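Troubleshooting entry. Yesterday's outputs looked truncated, so today I'm pasting the complete records for two proteins to confirm everything comes through intact. If either block looks cut off, that's the bug. Protein one:
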Amino acid sequence: MSNILVVEDEVIIRTALRKLLERNKYTVSEAASVKEATTRHDLTRYDLIISDLRLPGAPGTDMIKVAGDVPVLIMTSYASLRSAVDSMRLGAVDYIAKPFDHDEMLIAVKRVIGKATDAARQKKVSKTSSHQIPGMIGSSQVMKNLYNRIHKVAPTPATVLVHGETGTGKELVARAIHSESPRAGKPMISVNCAAIPETLIESELFGHEKGAFTGAASKSEGLVAAADGGTLFLDEIGELPLEAQARLLRVLQEGEVRPIGSTESHKVDVRLVAATHRDLRKLSREGKFREDLYYRINVVQLTLPPLRDRGKDIITLAETLLERYCEQLGKPTLILSPESIQAITTYTWPGNVRELENAMQRSAILCEDEREITHDLLAIDLDLVEVEIDVESRNEIASQVRRTRTDRDAATSLAVPESNEDLSLEDYFQRFVLEHQDTMSETELARKLGVSRKCLWERRQRLGIPRKKTASSAK
């Protein structure tokens, strides 16, 4: 039998809750305040503490601080939603809104005690650490921090919000959380909210009855119900329509789903992992995302760093992906040439890991050399992020440069002195580029000047020397 401590100052509620739990084979103790709970009871002998949020003397969240490894379930009114979310950030395992019905309380108690038991069992066999996660590559500090947080949050029932740019691998994080959770043996359902038409999203997620709308030829249980007992991953949750957000909030708050066209709801037990590249807080202020849903899903937030912030991980990823695609294509393992390594490390990768995957696959397919991948095969020149400059814009840039150089004759436009005397570094850079850009590629220019291609591009922009379109074909 599990031991439960109920901390509630209202005698009627406390007594009713004790009788409910005892009828369902739980051993129950009572306390009217945090002080009474800590002075009269040994907290370590309990499997669960159920505490009201508002108590005389000290708030119920103080129970979280003194409970140690014992899970704390917070009870609160609907009006205290933000306070409840804050309590979960402090370490509460979950919260339940008052007034609650008996079935709702019993389901929550059973779920929390079950998860706590599984988490304790898992803790005995493996300690939380920053060791890498299958499917995720990288040993930079930002990734080690991410691994550590995944290991911590995965065994808990907490809702997780994964934030990161497009292509960083947010679904990999969701799968890692699912695989390390007690739900690993149950299904994980992944849904891209941006890929489903707005008119169909509610039906896809929550199901519908036959004839509920035009085209509903048969009954559908929906993806939320399909994830019962497991994990529901909602990618790009910021694209979810407001109506669907309201239905999702009910799933999270009440643990039940009502299909479109149905008059009855049924219970579901799903853990939500949501992902987005958008600022949900800003969207909620603009009325484009429900504030109550935002606070409900933003219990634990994991931030997935962009590829450009992952240091040497970029090369490790590139070499691993290249090896994978060579194996798939039946080619001998290729290596990256020094020029291609320079290009990979200086490129900003706006498409992140997904773009890197495409570059490595493309290179492996097109490579005719049996030894290495050259820079040209990558097709990730910095020119890809340059803004195309038409003739009119180029003339305007040239005019601005002339106006700022009052010590020179404006009529000479971008011409440079014939003598090398008294040339500054910028003068020399400009003269060399103008004289050789028609016959040299960007890589050759950068090598001759002793700078990276990124540095070359940045100086071009600063000095107003746009690259000629025909130069990209010069070798």
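Protein two, checking that the full record survives here as well:
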Amino acid sequence: MGKPTGFMEFDRRDRGSQPVADRIVHYKEFVVPLNEGDLREQAARCMDCGIPFCHQGCPVNNIIPDWNDLVYRGDWRQAIEVLHSTNNFPEFTGRICPAPCETSCTLNIADTPVTIKTIECAIIDRAWAEGWIKPQVPQRRTGRRVAVVGSGPAGLACAQQLARAGHQVAIYEKADRIGGLLRYGIPDFKLDKRLIDRRMAQMRTEGVEFHTNTHVGVQVPIAELRADYDAVVLAGGSEQPRDLPVPGRALAGVHFAMDFLTRNSRRVQGLYVPASDFISAEGRDVLVIGGGDTGSDCIGTSNRHGARSVTQVEILDRPPERENKALTWPDWPNRMRTSSSQEEGCERMWNFATKAFIGDEQGRVKAVRYARVRWDRAADGRWQMSEIPGSEGELKADLVLLAMGFVHPVREGLIADLQAAAGLELDPRGNVRAATDGEAAYQTSVPGVFAAGDMRRGQSLVVWAIREGRQCARAVDEWLMGSSDLPS
């Protein structure tokens, strides 16, 4: 719990960042860590709150007060042991997780939560630097074989846990490199890809096989995996983007955000992307439609390209600057947040409904026609949107990026084949149906086929994917062996 009076003695401090002018000229991580003395002071702020609500906020149930106390006392080696007991990849969450644990911190009632995410990142970074992280090779092999489809955080976590339980595990990834959206979807300035490579090296030693450029359901029939392996885990993510079917959608210059981000990331990571395929924001008036993390990544990337202007629009109301703690704490609140990419420069607009894209003589988008909207509660309590009369307008834009989230997994190939051959069931939102508890936890309607991560729960956070991958691994191990010693 840190120092009992630490929260009264030390003010909250967090990591800094390179100045905007310095960081937008490169794609490297730009966060400036705290020194060890400051980190120990921040860990000391973890109070004896009685009920650690941070556990509730953290999807992987990190034992936060314990490793805060260990950092405060300088026992960094034990701190990584505690951290790794619940989280396979804290170097990922310590960089890109929105930290719902801090929202749930008791000190957040006064808007001064413990800097949990910063401390977590410091623990794992120090552990790697000190050489404390070693492969955990199982002492015995079970002879059972498991195929994991998808190498995002859910697939990686599931595979690592199953390998440590002694199973022979193979990951199948359709892209040319491992990592899923961690690899190409999240910009390098937020997550250095060497962190993924380092974990891959560890996992290879633990016995995990990696198969890239292998699209299950297209290049390799799912029936082949079911025949060759004792169990199959579907961890392919939720990749079907939400579209915006308005007039002018087919104009050149209107793209899904992930097409923009992945092609840029491939170039940043040294891979060849032809000029005809690359989407450049240089000198463009960029419009980002969607107010979430993907939209924010588009802003940061556009600014690094040298965009003329960047505007981000959202159809919902502008969130309040500060939540009502009495109504929201310890849950995740709807409030105004500004990302590091938004700090780098963009205009933000709310209550913005896109009506049409307007093109030039060459068939390229040049502007967007929009209307302002309002949200009111109907008699049944649901929110209803209506256009504000006379609010129509046009906004100049010659590059439009659709960042409105993802609706469900891509169905063509893998899912369609399993539906046709074995009656794979989907939930009402189009995700693969599987429960998270009970005797059939993470089992789909197809015997021996499991599902975890965004493919099962829908678009979500990396930390939720890690949780589901770990829990799914236990369910698979139990199904194969009758019991499991893996953590639940």
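Both blocks look complete. Sanity check on protein two: The first strand starts at residue 16 and ends at 17.
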